[in-house]
Inverse folding.
């Protein structure tokens, strides 16, 4: 889709970079157009489930533009994409909401430069896993991810795009006390 929207290819490229996506299918008018991590039959089956959920109006009744479904110990997201395409993806447990939030047109923006975090990713500073920008902890190593850099301007921001100061990044402790003392002219 042109004119500010994202294409199915943009979404597929983004999903392939992430370590939390097991498999996905993007469908349009009931037909799989991009399948990853599944054979053709599996792509058709998963895609038909996603399209059925969207056609049924279930997404609207849930009050959102996406649905997170857990079935048999697996987590799936179903998202209606720009241009009417449908994404159905199996993701690692606990990653459905952050991924759906990162795919949404209303994804958070940088508090400094205003850049959108839609289709943005963050690398876990501990294990190096590539994750959707909206995660708050790494599903691979469980490390909390409180701060990240804006991909456009490099500002340190929180998960919602709010700017984060040095003292907040340091947390409580001796390093923060030194910074505060210097700022107050006491050191």
């Amino acid at each position: 889709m042109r004119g500010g929207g994202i294409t199915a290819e943009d979404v597929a490229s983004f999903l392939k970079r992430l370590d939390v996506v097991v498999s996905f299918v993007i469908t349009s008018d009931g037909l799989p157009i991009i399948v990853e991590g599944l054979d053709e039959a599996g792509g058709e089956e998963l895609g038909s489930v996603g399209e059925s959920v969207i056609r049924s109006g279930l997404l609207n009744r849930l009050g959102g533009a996406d649905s997170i479904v857990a079935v048999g110990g697996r987590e799936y997201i179903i998202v209606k994409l720009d241009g009417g395409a449908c994404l159905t993806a199996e993701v690692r447990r606990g990653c459905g909401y952050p991924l759906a939030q990162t795919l949404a047109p209303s994804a958070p923006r940088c508090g400094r430069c205003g850049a959108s975090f839609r289709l943005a990713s963050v690398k876990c500073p501990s294990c190096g896993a590539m994750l959707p920008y909206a995660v708050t902890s790494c599903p691979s190593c469980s490390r909390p991810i409180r701060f990240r850099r804006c991909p456009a301007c490099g500002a340190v921001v929180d998960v919602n795009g709010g700017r984060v100061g040095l003292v907040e990044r340091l947390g409580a402790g001796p390093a923060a006390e030194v910074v505060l003392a210097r700022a107050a002219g006491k050191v």
